[in-house]
Q: What sequence folds into this?
């Protein structure tokens, strides 16, 4: 990490460190996705993970292109953050029983990974821009866009689970005994004061 040896002395060092870090993270994610694909029971979730595995391979390739531009070897520095996120997800999956709950757990674990990646790519893009390495930005931006799209797809899947209408399933109807009756439209009634005034007027007329 370099925190104790203090080998990060400039923004450029920080940028390179972050790139190595993320290269390691993407490799670890690539290794973890086949297990998530196997555990997912919802076909849409399974297909989503398969798609993201292919995307992750492409993302690694783009990072290698960034290293090439920077004339640096892509050796991934160990990243304890992604190790922790993936370890927690794996442990959670080992404790879950039941397909539906497993899918919910998988979505949450996958979103934790995506959010990590989104913050890291965001920082790298900002640093690359500040350093004038605009040649690296489009490659990093393509990866960021894929992570954001994946995150949005996962959110949509989680929402459809709680709102079956969105998935095209009929919404569960309320049992008759507890169904609320539609309130009848209330027509404006005269207030008691208006009633008294009306009575006074009619007495005067009499
Ligand atoms: Fe990624
Ligand atoms: Fe991702």
A:
């Amino acid at each position: 990490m370099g925190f104790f040896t203090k080998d990060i002395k400039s923004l450029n060092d920080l940028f390179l460190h972050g790139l190595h870090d993320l290269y390691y993270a993407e490799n670890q994610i690539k290794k973890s996705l086949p297990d998530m694909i196997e555990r997912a029971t919802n076909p849409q979730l399974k297909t989503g993970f398969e798609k993201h595995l292919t995307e992750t391979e492409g993302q690694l390739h783009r990072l290698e292109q960034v290293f090439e531009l920077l004339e640096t070897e892509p050796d991934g520095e160990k990243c304890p953050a992604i190790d922790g996120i993936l370890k927690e997800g794996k442990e959670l999956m080992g404790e879950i029983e039941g397909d539906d709950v497993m899918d919910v757990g998988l979505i949450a674990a996958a979103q934790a990974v995506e959010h990590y990646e989104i913050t890291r790519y965001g920082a790298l893009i900002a640093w690359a821009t500040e350093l004038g390495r605009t040649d690296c930005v489009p490659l990093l931006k393509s990866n960021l866009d894929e992570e954001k799209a994946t995150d949005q797809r996962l959110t949509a899947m989680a929402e459809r689970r709680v709102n079956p209408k969105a998935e095209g399933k009929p919404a569960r109807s309320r049992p008759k005994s507890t169904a609320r009756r539609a309130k009848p439209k209330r027509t404006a009634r005269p207030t008691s004061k208006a009633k008294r005034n009306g009575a006074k007027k009619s007495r005067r007329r009499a």
About this structure: Confidence is low (pLDDT under 50) at residues 170-188, 199-206. The helical segments are 11-39, 43-69, 80-95, 99-130, 137-162, 192-205. Residues 52, 113-114, 117, 147, 150 surround fe (ii) ion (ligand 2) (CB under 6 Å). The two ends are 98 Å apart (CA to CA).
